[in-house]
Each structure stands twice: as C-alpha cells, then as structure tokens.
Design brief:
The complex is a heterodimer. By secondary structure, chain A is an alpha+beta fold. Chain A is 21% helix and 36% strand. Classes of the chains: A alpha+beta, B alpha+beta. At the A-B interface, helix 1, strand 2, strand 3, helix 2 and helix 3 of A face helix 2, strand 2 and helix 3 of B.
C-alpha cells in the first residue's frame, strides 16, 4: 500500500515562518516606495499524485508525481483601485508577471524558499507598477466603466488547519484491475483506441496573507476513467467516456461492478457507431439529470460568476436581473462547496476554503425562479454582499469567481415516467414527429463575451429520438445542444424527481478546477440541436487485428 | 516505492519486433483504396525501447524526478516511387507518424499501435502525395525523393541498465553548489538519461538494432543584478553512460568555476560604446561560432518545398547549402565521422535510417566538397553518408555528429594577441575584444523568440589591452553577423572539444536544458578580422525593488 502523506510532515512551522517573514520583509520594503502594496497573499500548493493507466491490454503508465507550487498574489494601489483592474484597449495586451514557481519536493532548505519568494514577489510588484501607470492613464483617457466597483474586498484573516485525511492506495492491485479492464475492452473489434486510467491525489494548501490569514487545508481525490474510441462507417469519430470521482480510492467500485461497467461502455460504443447521425432540430427536449446539470453549468453558471459582471467586454446576461424571474417558480439553484457528498455520491467541487482564504459557503443563485445572486470572489460588485467563498484557481493563475457544487433543486417534480409522457405530449402539441431525450453529455462550453454570440454548446453524447407515434426510441449521434441563455431558460416546463450528479473539471481564465453539478431531469419545451463536427477520415482500411486467442472478432454485436 | 512496479519490466526489444515484421509485407501491399491510390513503395518502422530518467534539482533539492520505461513506435510511409513521392513537401500530415507505446509494451500493444499508426500515415501520405503532385512540378534535374539501398542488418547488444540513484545525488550535489550566491535567481541542474535500443525495420529487409544511450547533464545559473541585468551561465556534459561523467569533485569544481565566471561578469561594467574591429573567439565561444554559422552549411538534406495555402506559401525554406562554396579560409578542413570514437556523444555505427555511418571530409581547403546526407538525394549525390537523424515524426535529415574543424596552422595565444592588436590599430584602438563564452539559447526561460540573431549574445566578453591587461565588460550583442564572417578568419589558435546538442530539425535551435540530438565538436580559437558589437544595456524596469534575500541585511 502506498500512503499519500508526503507533505504532511513537510508542512512544519518553519515553512510558514519563512512565508510570513518574507511577506513582512516585502511589505516593509514596499512601504518606502511611492506605490504601496495594499494586499499580499502567499499560497503553497503541495500535491502528491499517483497515476496508473492501461491501454491495449497492458500497463501503460505508472507515474508518481509529488509537486510543490508557489503562488503569490500582490496588489498595488488601494482596494478601490488596484493593479488587478482589467485594462482596456491595446493596454490589455500587457503581459502578466504572474507565474507558478515550482519548489523542491524533498527539501527544507529555507534559502531555496526565500529565493523563490523573492523572485515571485519582486516580479509581481514591478509588474503591478507597470499596470498601475496604464490603469491611471485609462481612467483619464477612456470613458467611465459601466459598473463602478472596488477591486478588492478587505476581510479579516482566518486561522485554521484542516488537513485532509491520509489515504492509502494499493497500486499493484489496481494495476491488475486496470489491465484486466483494458484487455476486456480490447476484445471488441470496434474498439479502435482505448485507455483506462486511475489517478489518486492528495493536496494541501498553506495560505497566508497581509490580513493575518493562516490556513492549511486540502483535499483528496481519485478518478477512475475509461475512454473508448472508434470510427463509424460515415467517418464520425465516436467515443465513450466514463468516470468515477471519489474522495478516497477505497470508495471506488468492486472489480465485478467495473467489469460490467466496461462491458456496458463497449456496448454503448457499438450502439453509437451503428446509430444514425441526427439532424438540426428545434422542439421539446428532455434533459436527464447529468445533461441537465451540465446545461445549467454552461447556460447559467458561468454567467453568474461575479467578476464577469464588471468587465467591459462581458455579456452580463444576469447583471441587472436580481429579483427578476428567469426560470419557472419551482426551480431553485445554489452552489455549495461545503457539501462533500450528494447522497452516496462524492462531489468533486467540495472544499473548505477557497483560494482567497474565504470559507466555502452556500451561494443562493435562484430562488423560486427568481435570480437571487452571484458566485462571488473577493472582487466586489455594487450592492452585493462580499465573497461567498467561490474565488478559485488552478495553481499559478489569479483566482476569480468559479462554480463548485452547483445544485439545481425542483420544488415540484414528477416521476421520470411522467416527465417522458409530458415530453411526448409536448411533441404532439407542437405537431412534430419526434422530440429528444439527452441522457449523457461529454461536457460543454459557453461564450459569455459581447463581441461574439452569447451562446452555449452542450456536447451531447447519448441522445434518443422519442417518436410521437409510439415507435421505439432511436439512439442518434452527431448533434449538440446549442442556444442562448435567456431564451433557453424561458422554456423549462417541468422537472423530474430523479436527480443525477455530474463530476468533472471546468476550465476558464483561472485554469482548471474540479466541479460538480447536481440536477433533476428537466423538460424544456424548445431547444435547438446543431450538427456536431464530423471526422473526415474513413474507418481503418484493414480490420483490427484479432487477439492471440482469436477473441477480438467475438466482440460486441 | 511505486517505481518498483516498473523495475520488473523487461525492456527486451526483440519480442516486440515480430508484429512489425509481419506488418511490413501485409500493410505495404494491403493498404490501398478501392478507387486507386499510389502504392506504398517503402514502409519503415522505428521502435524505441528505452529506460529514461529526468531529474531537475535546485539548490541541492529535487524539483522533479521521473524514471520510466519509454517505448515509442514511429512509421514512415512512402507512396509513389523514389523519383516522386509524398515526402519533401511541407506539411505535418505527411506520412510520418509517431505514437507512445505502453510502459509495459507487449507484442499485442505493438501490433495494435502499428495497425492504427500505419493506417493513419498511409491515408496522410496519399493526401500529401496529391497535394505535392498538384503544386510541385519537379524540374528536369530533380534528383528524386528517396534512394533505395537494399537491406542492412546489424544488431547491437542491449546496453547494461544504469542506476539512477547516483544521478539524483549528483544533481543534488551540483545544484547545492549554487546555494548562497549573491543575486541568485535560479541555480538548477537538469539530468536527461536514456539507455536502450532503437530498431529500424523496413520493406527492403533492413533490420538494424542500434544502441541509444545518452546521459546529459546541464548546470544552469541565473542571476539578476541590482541594475536589472539578468545573466545566465551554464555547463553541459553529455556522455554515453553515467559512469563516463567526470568524477563528482571535478564536476563540482567546474560548477564553482562557472559561478565564479558569472560573478566576474556581474562585477564588470556595461559596454558603453559600439565596437567594430577584430574579435578573438576562444574556447566555448569559438566552438559556438562554428556550431551556429558553419555546421548548418554542411547538412545536405534539401528542405521541403513550400505548400501554397490560403495564407500564402508556408514552409518556405531556401536550400542554403552549396557544394563548392567557400565557407572557411584556404587550408581549413572539416571532417565529420560518427564512427571515429564510439564512446563520444553523437557517435553511431548506423544512422536512424539504418544506413552504415561513414566518415565525410566535408570541407577541404575551406571549400565544401561533400555534404552530410540521409537517403534523400540531392543534385550532387544520391548516396547517403549515414548521417540521417531527426525527430521520429518527420523525414530524417543529414546532420552533423562528431565534427572536427582543423585550421592549416595554429598560433599560440601570445601570437594571436599581437595579431589582434595589429588589426585593432587601424580602428584607432590599442585594445581588442575577446569572447570566451556565449549564452546558450537552450537555457533561456523566454517562451517566444522573435528575430533570433545568427549568433547568440556574448556572456564572457573581455577587453584585452596592449599591455596584457584584461577588463571584462557585460551588456553587449553582435550585429550583422552572418556565415560570411567565417571567411574573415585571420588566424586560429588552440583546439578545444566539447559535446553539443542540436535541434531536431535542421535550422532549429535545441530548446530545453537536455533536449536535442547529441553531437561533438572540436574547433580552434579564431581571430576574426571585423565583427560589430553593440551595447545591450540592462532594462531599468527589471531592476529589483525588493532586495535579494542574500543581501537583505544590507538594506532592510
């Protein structure tokens, strides 16, 4: 068994003392300069990650990666106007001085840490000076910004230690499981490419700032994923991705469950390969739980990130809608990173403190269909209370407001069967031949700016046509849900009692962060599908070679 | 701990080859489109089975360490015929493709990888052939695209595995030498180590199994001065096996000497005037002068023809190599021989195409007589000299390996000094510049590089006065330096030799501390008649506001 404890001992007080001493030395030096530093935070991210993977029926990779990254956030000016204010026009091309610095993984040399801190702090201060010159010039030259808001919310620093539990992990046992699963899927003649991967990590963050914060906290996580790829006869590149996200590898399913899981994935890949491509469509769509969760993430979540409401180039879809009805009255939406689980399912977006030293807390976003508030980092908005603990980042980036565990709750709901019946009724009411059920998705993306259509794309993976005349449902591929947010929300008409969880990672300007979505199935009276991009290469010209025991041609039919 | 899982893995290459040997005849005949397509006339697989170590240490501590099997497969598909095929035309979907193999590669995983990769490469080769056919009309004297040579067989025994623990401790110990230095920004040691074999199999029946062993060590020290000047110094060692490295105490001494050298540069004043006149290049700077300005003129694989796209012609590169061109003064010779000493980095008996390596007398009396070639013909020759190397996802090219540059006559340092002073006199000076070391672009941490000069910035630059007094200066750059200045060599001095790293493609600089094709270069110190050196003062905005922690007690 491998214990993931590497940095627990390393986080002894000398490290913290050095961080504090260098913080104080910097503040003392800069206090003699014309431009003052009003806030300085130092974070040390320590991660111990193990990765095992198998492809083509054999062990592909074993990688143990301890990593220490130093993050410095420095603000020159005042909380009202500081060096983080977004620049407009050509000045926005000014480069960032912020870089993640990698530190040693096995040593305690104070000198190395001091030199790294000096590099990061000095470089950020000099960069901040440059920015302040440009920011002040912009205030003279350009029009006033549409939203007058301070750049930073001062707070009282918190002191707390909540180290994640030590976890153990048996790589040899898991290697066998992964190789077995990989062999199992290799038996299919239609699996052209594949990978089974397990990552286990434990991370600890030490955070100090000039407000007196001293925090040590972290998380543990394991992900087991299966990725299958094939090419359909029409050239469409078809893939199936499945994953389990848990806080502890001990909570991963048993081998027998995984074998069935892999079989089901292969069968689904085959079904998708044989399925016809869909066509552009507008009409009723039933989003099952996972698809519904991603739909809310893309359509709604990114648009209620607080910092977007004050940037001149952002679409600000919901900026002036507090109190307005945007969804049916039976829908509530909130984001709560303090939740570790939903029922028996671990939530990926769980944490104790955000990356600005603010405790994780529930943010009310929609109450009874009315817009209630934003996801807030420490970048304030007028007439909005301060941070609600959603300032997040990938190490090396600047934190901004991000989603964590986004929960959609239906005050009124019907059974899945009834929801399906409502879909069919709606299809008939609209005089259509069929409607759609979206069961699973690969992810999605959304565009929130003004220079481009303010639209979303939810990457449908498993979509069924549901015929009004009662014909059996038909699996189709090659279509994505697209639309614009306000119109899409107007058309939510009913919800299911069945709730599902989506665990994944979300990428945005502050990097990749783990997130979850929890949502019931939703019936939307009108949504749009567009064609997904399509591969242009023919399937392999020669059949996949069979395995030594000849089992490849026995695969899934 | 977890690495123990991998130590049990056999890295024997031979069991992985049968699937490739079976794939060669099958795919070269069966891969075809019903509608008709140019046939595969040559198919080659590369399979590399290595153990690699990557270590990065800073100030005596580990930043990163990885030891793993590194298995890779690559395919080269040529369709058409040797006179006109899919190669030599710009584009990245061109019939050359590469993929990683599992750490615990099995015959089945090789079989599947070959199936996927060959199918893709074949389709791309056919498309690339059509693009080339549409746009490139070969001239009458087109030498063709490839040379078939018949089978070659050679089998190298597996090299003994190396222990990585000593490398880790070495990296730690060397980087610890940088602790406590004033103005220190980065004090790092990088280790890249690989040991294993590379198999080359093709449809001509070639089966060459060649050793691939390399241990490269780079120590790098970066400081930033109070005036904002950032200075970087480095040392590179590249050997075949870890045990070929010098003893630890010698390495430490070299690293300390490097730090002292940088400290002396830091203490020097900034060059305050333009200097035009004679410049003496010595030691590492002399080797670099030839490395950057001469070696590319000897690499004879013609560049790709450009691809005319919506954005205009992309991949345009003129063939700057000429047989019969004077590249050095009369009497100079250049020999490249990968086989001359098989213990040197860059040495080999067979190149990446499986061709036996040969000694090439490339320059005679200052004029290029023969080029270093792969199996891609050029007007002057269709013979490979066995110098094909490169990255495995591209066409291989003739590259330098173990290169010796010899002047007709060598002068002692005193004589060179007098000659330099005589040359400086008409410029109104009783001193001249000597360059002992250039900055290696491979260790710079900037990502985007525009308008790279032909010759990198001088690091160790010395004003040498008539009375023998030496005065270091910093903050200078070359201007107007091109390959022609090698014809302006006035005299040569002592020979020195050292390993170098070449970029994977001709004309590319090596990027990364230990990345590149290893080579060996022996060259003399040289006095150039006229070089232009300009001041390159530090940027004031880079001056630290917060004092360095090693100097903190001075100011705060």
């Amino acid at each position: 068994m491998i214990p993931l404890w590497l940095f627990t001992a390393a986080l002894a007080s000398p490290v913290e003392e050095i961080l504090i001493a260098e913080r104080d030395r910097a503040i003392q030096t800069f206090s003699k300069e014309d431009e003052q530093v009003h806030y300085l935070a130092i974070a040390l991210h320590e991660t111990h990650k193990l990765e095992l993977s198998a492809v083509d029926g054999t062990l592909a990779r074993v990688h143990e990666q301890p990593q220490r990254i130093l993050d410095v956030d420095l603000r020159v000016g005042t909380p009202e106007l500081d060096s983080t204010r977004p620049l407009r026009g050509l000045s926005a091309y000014e480069g960032s001085q912020k870089k993640a610095l990698r530190l040693s993984v096995d040593g305690e040399d104070p000198d190395a840490l001091r030199v790294a801190l000096w590099r990061a702090i000095d470089s950020q201060y000099r960069g901040a000076l440059q920015r302040m010159v440009m920011i002040r010039a912009e205030h003279t030259v350009k029009i006033e910004e549409e939203v007058e808001a301070d750049d930073f919310e001062p707070r009282e620093g918190l002191v707390d230690t909540r180290l994640p539990v030590d976890i153990t992990f048996d790589p040899e046992a898991w290697e066998e499981i992964l190789v077995d699963l990989s062999e199992q899927v290799d038996a299919s003649p239609w699996v052209f490419g594949q990978g089974v991967r397990l990552t286990v990590d434990r991370s600890v963050q030490t955070f100090i700032d000039t407000e007196g914060a001293k925090l040590r906290h972290g998380r543990t996580h394991a992900r087991l994923s299966l990725n299958l790829r094939t090419v359909a006869e029409d050239g469409d590149e078809v893939s199936v991705f499945r994953a389990f996200d848990v806080h502890d590898p001990a909570r991963l399913p048993e081998r027998e469950v995984l074998a069935a899981w892999a079989d089901q994935a292969v069968q689904h890949l085959h079904a998708l390969r044989e399925a016809p491509r869909g066509t552009p469509y507008t009409g009723p769509v039933l989003l099952e739980g996972k698809a519904s969760a991603v739909f809310f993430h893309e359509v709604f979540g990114h648009r209620v990130e607080g910092h977007r409401q004050k940037r001149e180039w952002e679409g600000r879809t919901f900026a002036a809608k507090i109190g307005e009805r945007i969804l049916p009255p039976f829908i509530d939406v909130y984001d709560d990173p303090s939740l570790a689980r939903w029922g028996e399912i671990d939530l990926n977006g769980h944490y104790a403190y955000d990356d600005e030293g603010v405790p994780a807390q529930r943010a009310e976003l929609v109450r009874e269909g009315r817009f209630a508030g934003f996801l807030m980092s420490r970048s304030p908005l007028p007439e909005v209370e301060g941070s609600n603990g959603h300032g997040r980042r990938q190490p090396g980036r600047e934190p901004v407001a991000r989603m964590a565990n986004t929960i959609v709750h239906a005050r009124q709901a019907v059974s899945p069967k009834e929801l399906r019946a409502k879909l069919v009724a709606e299809v008939r009411r609209q005089g259509l031949e069929y409607g759609y059920i979206v069961r699973d998705i690969d992810g999605g993306f959304t565009l929130t700016g003004r220079m481009i259509p303010n639209s979303f794309n939810v990457r449908a993976n498993t979509t069924f046509r549901v015929y009004a005349d009662g014909r059996p449902d038909e699996l189709v591929r090659g279509i994505d849900l697209v639309g614009t947010p306000l119109v899409a929300f107007q058309n939510v008409v009913a919800a299911s009692t069945e709730v599902e969880v989506f665990n994944g990672h979300c990428g945005a300007e502050s990097g990749w962060v783990p997130v979850s979505g929890v949502a019931p199935g939703l019936l939307v009276s009108r949504l749009e599908f567009q064609l997904k991009e399509k591969g242009q290469e023919r399937p392999p010209l020669i059949d996949k070679p069979i395995t030594a025991d000849g089992s490849a041609d026995g695969g899934v039919q | 701990m977890i690495l123990a899982l991998l130590f049990g893995i056999s890295w024997a290459l031979e069991p992985l080859l049968p699937p490739l040997e079976e794939s060669l005849p099958r795919y070269s005949t069966e891969l075809t489109f019903d509608e008709g397509s140019p046939p595969i006339y040559h198919l080659r697989y590369h399979l590399r089975a290595l153990h690699t170590s990557t270590i990065q240490s800073s100030l005596g501590e580990l930043i990163e360490e990885e030891h793993r099997p590194f298995n890779q497969i690559a395919v080269e598909v040529r369709v058409g015929d040797p006179d006109f095929d899919n190669t030599g035309f710009y584009g990245w979907q061109n019939g050359f493709s590469m993929a990683s193999l599992p750490d615990r590669a099995t015959p089945r995983s090789v079989e599947l990888a070959a199936w996927r990769l060959t199918d893709t490469a074949f389709k791309q080769a056919v498309e690339q052939f059509s693009r080339k056919k549409a746009q490139f009309k070969p001239p009458e004297d087109h030498p063709g695209d490839y040379t078939l040579t018949g089978p070659v067989s050679a089998t190298a025994l597996p090299p003994p595995p190396a222990q990585h623990e000593p490398l880790r401790e070495l990296a730690r110990a060397l980087s610890a030498e940088f602790r406590g230095l004033p103005h220190l920004e980065r004090g790092q040691v990088f280790v890249g180590h690989e040991v294993g074999r590379h198999a080359v199999l093709d449809t001509e029946g070639t089966k060459v199994i060649r050793p691939m062993t390399e241990t490269t060590l780079r120590a790098m020290l970066q400081i930033r001065l109070p005036d904002g000047h950032r200075l970087v110094n480095d040392r590179l060692w590249s050997v075949l096996r870890p045990e070929d490295l010098p003893p630890l105490e010698d390495l430490k001494a070299e690293v300390r000497q490097m730090a002292e050298e940088l400290a002396s540069v830091a203490d020097a004043p900034v060059l305050d005037q333009e200097v035009i006149g004679p410049v003496l290049f010595t030691d590492a700077a002399a080797r670099d002068l030839f490395r950057y300005l001469l070696l590319p003129q000897l690499e004879g694989t013609p560049p790709d023809s450009p691809f005319d796209t919506y954005f205009g012609e992309i991949g345009e590169k003129s063939d700057t190599v000429r047989v019969g061109r004077r590249v050095l003064p009369p009497g100079w010779t250049v020999v490249d021989d990968p086989t001359s000493d098989l213990t040197r980095p860059g040495s080999f008996t067979h190149d990446y195409e499986g061709t036996p390596a040969t000694r090439v007398e490339a320059v005679e009396s200052g004029v290029v007589r023969r080029l270093l070639t792969s199996r891609v013909p050029r007007k002057e020759t269709d013979q490979s000299t066995g110098h094909a190397r490169g990255s495995f996802s591209n066409r291989m090219a003739g590259r330098t390996s173990v290169t010796t540059i010899t002047p007709p006559r060598q002068r002692n340092p005193r004589r060179l000094h007098r000659m330099a002073l005589r040359l400086a006199a008409p410029y109104g000076r009783d001193w001249y510049l000597r360059v002992d070391r250039l900055v290696d672009p491979a260790v710079r941490d900037d990502i985007f590089r525009f308008n790279e000069p032909a010759l990198p910035t001088p690091l160790v630059l010395v004003k040498v006065h008539a009375d023998g007094r030496e005065e270091r200066v910093r903050g200078a750059k070359f201007t107007g330096v091109e390959r022609w200045i090698l014809r302006d060599i006035i005299a040569a001095g002592d020979q020195s030799a050292a390993p170098i790293l070449l970029g994977f493609q001709p004309g590319d600089a090596a990027r990364g501390a230990t990345t590149g094709l290893p080579g060996w270069l022996e060259a003399p110190d040289v006095l150039i008649g006229e070089v232009e050196v300009l001041p390159a003062p530090p940027r004031r905005r880079d001056a630290p506001v917060l004092s360095h922690p090693h100097l903190a007690s001075d100011g705060e």
